[in-house]
Amino acid sequence: MPTVATTASTAAMTANRSQKSLPIPLVSAYWEAMVTLADVQAARERLRGIAHVTPVLTSRTLDGMVGLKVFCKMESFQRGGAFKFRGAYNAMAQLSPDQRTRGVLTYSSGNHAAALALAGSLFACPVTVVMPSDAPAVKKAATEGYGGEVVLYDRAEQSREALGRRLAEEKGLTVIPPYDHPHIVAGAGTTAMELLESCPDLDAVVVPCGGGGLLGGCSLTAKALRPGIKVYGVEPEAGDDAARSMASGKLETVDNPQTIADGARTPSLSELTFGLAQKHVDGIVTVSDAELLQATRFMWERMKCVVEPTGVLGLAAVMTGKLATSSQRVGVVVSGGNADVKALSALW
Prior knowledge:
By secondary structure, the chain is an alpha/beta fold. Helix content is 45%, strand content 15%.
């Protein structure tokens, strides 16, 4: 039987993926206690000297466009090209030697897959990844380049969780999910910790939202370090489950959302990440694919940084003025840079 390195929410979520909404209570002490600032601080120590301390970039052109001081935390410069390395390494570092010898399994459209494969190469741990057949070729190549074994599936026909469970059972693998895990969330939270160390006087932090691991980790960290700071999440219009969940107070789902933000094509938050969002996030807004392309192109052309559409969800919200905030100094997490350059260029 596999070891599942996950929270109790995963099984409950998997059983209910087809439902349009899942009634759950407001955040409880249980979910709040699953990840704390102490966990983020411990993750920071595990990552010290391993993960990159990514740069914070500014642009006078951008500031002039939006009428704010914007500070971009560039996780596109992280190992593996995305923030995901933080959580993947933090989770793998806490496995037993036997678990590492047997190997781990995850399901991911790309960035978590590559990050876990990279972490596995550092720990000599075999990594199997269940990946959708329509995942960007650059992310599949990166995962395999780091030594990961990729198992493709049709996201319109198959459940990645069900396929992952079957493979894990057959091989005795430990499952490390992409966001529904306290070690993943704590690792992601180190992003906000670094940002606030570089820019301690921010009024707000804006974070991309897919499954909610990055948003959950960054929001709890930012609020713990700066109780008065505002934290906003941003997701694609086609995958607006988090925004609707926050509005309704229950966990909403979107089946197979169609968006160029492939890293945010998750059907829903988890109970863990939704609980953290309810506790710490001040609001969630959505942006269109056209707005994501505009933000991506701005980053490429004006800031000379290759980023992916998912990575600029937060920047797109700032550039379009969708955040109803009086904040003047805004930190924006740019979550990744694993872009299919040829495919994106064809859309402009």
